Amino acid sequence: MNKTICGVGALLGMLAVILGAFGAHGLEKLIDPSSLQSFETGVRYQMYHALLLLVLGVMPQLGASDKKAIFYLVGAGTVLFSFSIYLLATNELTGFDFRSIGFVTPVGGTLLIVGWGLFGYRVYKRFN
């Protein structure tokens, strides 16, 4: 499981760099500044959570079941949160109105909050 967690963390980190560069160099003339700022927020949160997964994957102090639960919460939360922001920010470039799936963003954010809470709780319990 540690290899999977670290691999997904590295993949999300790499994608964050690629999407950040795309946003900065490919989208700046195509979408309005507010949408670009939203896109960059998605990239930032994706990178934060990629780093969290890398830390989680190398922490020997947490058990496999704890890591698995945190991994699923953070992984799903990152995809739902960041990728829905990417779609919403680039909405004007497509023929589909992604605002109809806007409810996904807070669901992803909630999963991230729960993931961080579980991570903090498990670390606290382990070192207390």
TrEMBL record:
This protein's major location comes to membrane
What name does UniProt use for this protein?
Uncharacterized membrane protein YgdD, TMEM256/DUF423 family
- Cellular compartment(s): Membrane
Q: Which PANTHER family does the protein's record reference? A: TRANSMEMBRANE PROTEIN 256
Q: Give the UniProt family note.
A: Belongs to the UPF0382 family.
Taxonomic superkingdom: Bacteria
- Key words of the record: Membrane, Transmembrane, Transmembrane helix
Membrane association type: Multi-pass membrane protein
Where is the chain membrane-spanning? 47-63, 70-89, 101-124
What the entry lists under InterPro entries is as follows:
DUF423 (IPR006696)
Q: Which residues does UniProt call coiled coil?
A: none
Q: Does the keyword Membrane apply?
A: yes
Q: Name one GO cellular component term.
A: plasma membrane
Look up keyword Transferase and say if it applies.
no
